[in-house]
Hints:
Largest sheet of chain B: 4 strands, parallel
Distance between the termini of chain A: 47 Å
Oligomer: heterodimer
Shape of chain A: globular
CATH class of the largest domain in chain A: Alpha Beta
Largest sheet of chain A: 5 strands, parallel
Number of helices of chain A: 21
Amino acid sequence: MATPDEHNRRLSDRRAIHIAYAQAVPLTYCIDSDLCLHLNGTGHCSRCSDACPADAVDFLMSAQENTIRVGAIIMAPGFSPYNPQGKGSWGYGVLDNVITSPEMERLLSSCGPTSGRLLRPSDNRPVKQLAFIQCIGSRDPHPCGHGYCSSVCCMTAIKEAMIARDNDCELEVTVFYSDMRTHGKGFDRYFQRASDKQIRFTRCRPHGIEPAGKDGALRVRTINEQGRQLEETFDLIVLSVGLEIQEPTIQLASLAGIHLGPEHFASTSSFQPVLSSKKGIYICGAFSGPKNISLSIEQGSAAAAAAASLLMSRRDTKTRKLRLPPAQPPAAAVKTGVFLCHCGNNISETINLETVRKQISVLKSVSHVEEVLFGCSQDTRELIIDLVRSLGLNRIVIAACSPKTHEALFRRTIREAGLNEYLLEMANIRNHDSWVHALDPDAATDKAVDLIKMAVAAVMLKRPVTANTAAVKQTALVVGGGVTGMTAAINLADQGFPVDLVEKTDRLGGNGLNLHRTWNGEHVPPYIKKLQAQVLDHPGITVHFCATVLDAGGHAGNFHTTIRDHKEHRRIITHGAGIIAVGGKRSLPDEYGYGKIPGVVAAVEFDALHIYNDIRVSRGSSFVFIQCVGSRDETHNYCSRVCCTHSVQSAIELKKEDPNRQVYILFREMRTYGLRESLYNRALELGVIFINYEQFGKPKVKSHDEQITVEVWDHILHRPLHIMADMIILASGILPNPDAGRLASLFRVNIDEDGFFQEAHPKLRPVDLPTDGLFVAGLAHAPKPIEESISQALAASARAATLLSQKEICLDAVKAVVDDKHCDGCALCIDVCPYQAITPLETIDADGEQHKLVAVDTMRCTGCGICQGTCPKRAINVVDFTYEQLTAKIEAALN
Amino acid sequence: MRPEHKPKIIAFCCNWCGYAAADLAGIQRIQYPDSLRIIRVMCSGMVHPEMVLHALNKGADGVMIIGCQLGECHYIDGNEKAMARAELIDELLEDFGFENDRFLITRLSSSESEQFARTVGTMHKRVLELGPNPNSNQDNGDTP
């Protein structure tokens, strides 16, 4: 039975019994009960259960109700893409070649319905002219759309455009947009790369799509920047659809009794961004507002940290520990046991295991071969344990499936038998053989013999390896006492881990001390006061004021950092984990007459003047905000993320105080992303005038007889506009901490091109630094508003707690080992090691002779073996993958 | 080309991408030539250039290194280091009289099972066209 495949956005079909998608966990088949003839009662089919050798198909299974008692709930229901069908004049669902951005994602995927080729759905012809239309269902106050910005669609469109161009350099790509909201870390550079790749970005919002002729082409009417109406045709148009919360999630929220905001996003406070309106229920991801992958991952960790601190008293009360017999040292003679798994008939149907058994039995080191129906079943595992003990087997080869899924299980099995778990090798005769050569059983059988011979040859050479453990000092160091540092310190201390907090100045608060209000109007100063008091009163937190980090060393679980405090005392702090929250710095404008013309002020200064009702503000009648001052220029090639929202917020205040005031915002892209868009809409309603300028047509500020004039090119009138202003407010950006470079080299981590700390992975490990046990959060990572800094602080705290909650950490034994006899200290491995785990070493032998060597720091080594691939002396080898073992496999395969 | 020639290709697959793509090809029952003998390595950067030469000396008809896509390396940039080494391997093979086409380094992500099978197919065709490695089934010379 076939039905449209939801994962491929209904662009292809799937069966009733199917794997949801290639990366599904668990990677097993499931039955669609609505479609299955047996389950939906329309037929008597039971072909799948007849065919399944493991009897894994159970038609009698039904939904069960379980009650689970928990102390906290984390809700991460995510979002749904906006469905443009029947809404607006986009023709979606009527015109075949109008698709949505999630559908485009599948078309571009090499595992998608077209294997990654960009073909028009109407006739499968290659696409030549492609267009994206942004803000479908977003920034659209009409009843069928949403007023908010979905925040991620600009980047999604650029990414999809880039992939499409990479696959076909002849493809013409146009993106129609209103504001290019690439406000994330490194996103502006990505946008620039897209422009360099000849992707055309047109600031225009088309009103609809109509068919152009009968061959599937599409017509769009647009207005160019000179104000002229144009007609363009395209083969394929992608609607960049927004994110929305749909009915099932709304119902879930109402069941949980938590409050949702006007657009059905969960309400949160900026100060507790992952806490719902109900104590003990935490929320993360797009449920509380549109956000991208990295922000969602941060919030996932943050919610875990918040829940962990609530449940602190119950930690480890449900943990069970495995008891194992001591591992026996293996006898001198190698006795290999080979287990041939039938995997039901997945393997035995194709491969003649009888032939295999005969050919393997004669190998010199093999003392026993056993065929088993399911190698991973409990009874087979017990059989393996029995045979290891009774026959004295000391090397085990499992010829079955993939070590990626089953190696851990078999390691545990032989360890339970008292054998060192590393004396194991798997031959993947299922995924790499019987399944992929099903039509040629003879060839598959020959290949299986080869694969097992390879495993036997390699396992012979294996020696017992003991994984090292390292004690964990269950304390943390937090560098930086701003909002981020304080939040992380409080959470860790609440979780029971003592914290040393190092603050450069004599006061806690950092850049937060300059803030008055969050974007949703919450007051910052009382919150900072509360944080300061919590930190100072917390018995688990030691604050070091006026302190600097002088030196750093050690590794995850045991770092030692030298600081100098206000009394000029040097002290060494030992700690298991470290969080870098050194913040950033506000940039001081050097343009628009700042510092020379009295009425020209930076945003932070304006806030202070505004709050104290300075006469220049209270009597002013014309205000001009200039955006992107010290951001998105040649020297600071990034967006500071907070300034658009901040200026719009100030403009609203000014207008609310006196509607007769003239308030202008001169902007490049208005980036009131996510739910902040409501502020932009409010400002428009109140009559704030927004004028767009380009990087190479900046406004000019002149002052004459105490009268300030701003000249800016007006895109609608196509002539320069002169604005008389009482005050000019410069939305100055955020700079990295000037000390970041020095700190990064002390902690052996990196800073990015702009001077912010570089995380281990921009999407998947957003708060991890490349050195295990060190984390980054807040402005030290990139410019961001307060609630995102708090989320990151909690995320870093959660990540640190996963390490600190263990008394000792077991290190993987798969690490590089230096052969002292052959190493001549040439240091080539040092250069290529991505983790700086190798250092030069000099030793003096018994004869007083000096030797140059290298040493591997097993805490830093990840066992990648790039050193092994480089060493001209073959003197550095990764356990389980040694040069000798790999060559043994090669030779066994070819003999 | 002798009709009975059944080529053997040694493929070093990185644990995270190449090997995972091969596993997935199995799950999806994508059929590809049986000449492939996969050796799992943690990173494509783990493969020593001499290992490639050794395989050819021992009679492999082709050698492949399959690592992650650029930017997706589990070890920051091991795949780029492997790519950088590929030039050296080409020179090494030329010095020892092996055709360049007997060696292929490529990049895949773990979900690209079809691409994996296609690449194996291409390599298989390439070695069939080249004919058997003169060293196959006999132990001619050793690796320095």
